[in-house]
Amino acid sequence: MTDSKKLSDDISFAGQVTPEQLQQAAEYGFKSVLNLRSPDESGFLSDEEQRANAAGLKYANVPLKPSEPNQELTAAAIQEIENLPKPVLIHCAAGARAGGIALIATAINEGLNYDQITQKAQEIGIKLEQPHLQQFLVDKYIAKQAEES
Prior knowledge:
Number of helices: 6
CATH topology: Protein-Tyrosine Phosphatase, Chain A
Number of domains: 1
CATH class: Alpha Beta
CATH architecture: Alpha-Beta Complex
Radius of gyration: 15 Å
Structural class: alpha/beta
Mean pLDDT: 93
Number of strands: 5
Low-confidence stretches: none
Largest sheet: 5 strands, mixed
Strand order of the largest sheet: 1-2-5-3-4
């Protein structure tokens, strides 16, 4: 898909997808879609699950708020990524949440250290200030470093 960014062979991310892009995703070989948008967000595609299923894609929705990190929902999103058939396309409204969650999942899966995460974020254009990613980095790396020093 032209508007998506590939983080690994298993994970790509994008902003809001259209019904046509869901069909394209299936044609490009994606097996599943994870939507991080809340149904009350403007522009939420109310029949996205049906359209994804019709295209042959598994579908999951974990409604992460764009501005406030939530450890439980972040963990739920990571769990969905682990359980969904690969490759998975993760999306939100503009791609920031999706990029942050995609990077967290990749970091966990590949055992990346802080420097590797920041390098990958720069390569792909993911902002480390994205709230869910920032909380993950603080919890996993920055707090740990503070404890060790």
